[in-house]
Amino acid sequence: MNKQELIGQVADHAGLSKGDAQKAVEAVFDSVTGALKKGDEVRLVGFGTFSVSKRKASTGRNPRTGEPMTIKASTQPKFKAGKGLKDAVN
Question: What is the pTM of this model?
Answer without folding.
Answer: 0.78
